[in-house]
Q: What sequence folds into this?
């Protein structure tokens, strides 16, 4: 049975983002609010490992998934047992690229890592809905199997060099080192609303953890649930 915990890292308060996640009422959720990044990532992982959930779904308060988005990822996991399966979002607002890369990110020996170092897929890829194997996953809505969470802690990428940033790049690199494949479901698309400094509430409000337990969880093994959501479909999977 697929039983995920949806963890939303939330350094700000946006009503339209809250409404999007409120609609996903069929899984347990934890909001990690107003914490600095390193603490927020650690809390999300630790709270997940303390429970009996099968998968951790990592997201943040800068995307607006559809109500069906998590159900689609759950179905993917039930049918394909993917170690990592992610939805996609624009790289930034109104960008024509989405935040996954099939080819490796170019990491220079010196200097910064610019957006141009990421060979992001063009948004036209969404015209051919499929599951595609990827090298880099941006944490828009990323479902990670429990054994992978246990093996790979969340950390910033080369923190001494770049600071407390690029957790998605560090995770992608570590998965490659451990031979853990990552996939993206191009049906699961959401808009991206990057934070501005004026919206960030870290250091301005008391950090808190907010639990929301589902009263009517989706049990993906029950065929009637799949039929009600009309999720059964023929979907091409690219594994190479």
A:
């Amino acid at each position: 049975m697929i039983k995920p915990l949806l963890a939303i890292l939330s350094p700000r308060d946006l009503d339209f983002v809250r409404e999007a996640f409120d609609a996903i009422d069929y899984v347990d959720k934890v909001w990690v609010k107003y914490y600095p990044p390193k603490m927020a990532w650690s809390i999300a992982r630790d709270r997940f490992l303390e429970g009996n959930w099968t998968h951790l779904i990592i997201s943040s308060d800068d995307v607006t998934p559809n109500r069906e988005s998590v159900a689609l990822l759950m179905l993917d996991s039930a049918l394909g047992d993917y170690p990592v399966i992610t939805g996609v979002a624009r790289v930034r607002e109104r960008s024509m690229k989405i935040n996954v890369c099939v080819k490796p990110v170019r990491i220079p020996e010196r200097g910064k890592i610019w957006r141009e170092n990421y060979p992001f897929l063009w948004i036209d890829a969404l015209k051919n809905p499929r599951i595609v194997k990827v090298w880099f996953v941006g944490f828009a809505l990323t479902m990670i199997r429990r054994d992978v969470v246990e093996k790979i802690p969340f950390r910033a990428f080369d923190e001494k060099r770049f600071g407390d940033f690029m957790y998605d790049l560090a995770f992608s690199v570590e998965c490659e080192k451990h031979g853990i494949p990552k996939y993206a479901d191009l049906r699961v698309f959401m808009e991206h609303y990057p934070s501005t400094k004026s919206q960030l509430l870290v250091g301005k409000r008391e950090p808190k953890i907010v639990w929301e337990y589902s009263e009517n969880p989706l049990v993906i093994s029950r065929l009637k649930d799949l039929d009600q959501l009309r999720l059964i479909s023929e979907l091409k999977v690219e594994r190479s």
